[in-house]
């Protein structure tokens, strides 16, 4: 798993709201641009990024997660975290008992 090379804290939360299970993974890392977030939310393939080591590819794992969540009637939302980094929110319908 690629993550912030400078280190950061990862926050996990789970909540039930309006018959939906919301799983949130956030961090207080360096974050990303709104343009990259829109790309991750809307483009069905990986994102390229360059760093000191060369070109990196991100997002194939995210694409697989989105497909699995979608097949279960859910959605995946990526946005800026309230902690300053990135948030990935998985929203799934709850089963009716």
Mean pLDDT: 83
> What CATH architecture do you see?
2-Layer Sandwich
Q: Helices and strands, in N-to-C order?
A: EEHEEHEE
How are the strands of the largest sheet arranged?
1-2-6-5
Which shape, going by the Cα principal axes?
A: globular
User: Unreliable stretches, pLDDT < 50, 5 or more residues?
Assistant: none
| CATH fold category name | Heat Shock Protein 90
Per DSSP, what share of the residues sits in E-state strands of 2 or more residues?
35-45%
Biggest pleated-sheet summary: 4 strands, antiparallel
EC number: 2.7.13.3
Enzyme class: transferase
Domain Histidine kinase: 1-96
Catalytic activity: ATP + protein L-histidine = ADP + protein N-phospho-L-histidine
Description of the structure:
The protein is of the alpha+beta class. The chain has one domain: 2-Layer Sandwich (Heat Shock Protein 90), CATH 3.30.565. Helices cover 22% and strands 41% of the residues. Strands 1-2-6-5 form a four-stranded antiparallel β-sheet. The longest helix is centred in the last third of the chain and has 12 residues. It is globular and about 50 Å long. It starts with 9 loop residues before the first strand and ends with a strand. One of its GO terms (cellular component) is plasma membrane.
List the helices and strands and how they pair.
Blueprint: E1 10-17, E2 20-27, H1 34-42, E3 47-51, E4 54-58, H2 60-71, E5 75-80, E6 86-93
What's this model, at a glance?
The chain is of the alpha+beta class and 97 residues long. The longest helix has 12 residues.
């Amino acid at each position: 798993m690629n993550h912030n090379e400078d280190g950061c804290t990862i926050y996990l939360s789970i909540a039930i709201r309006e018959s939906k299970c919301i799983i949130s993974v956030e961090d207080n890392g360096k974050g990303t641009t709104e343009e990259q977030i829109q790309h991750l939310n809307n483009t069905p393939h990986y994102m390229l990024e360059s760093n000191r080591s060369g070109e990196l590819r991100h997002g194939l794992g995210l694409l697989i997660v989105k497909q699995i969540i979608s097949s279960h009637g859910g959605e995946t939302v990526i946005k800026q975290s309230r902690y300053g980094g990135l948030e990935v929110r998985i929203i799934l319908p709850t089963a009716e008992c």
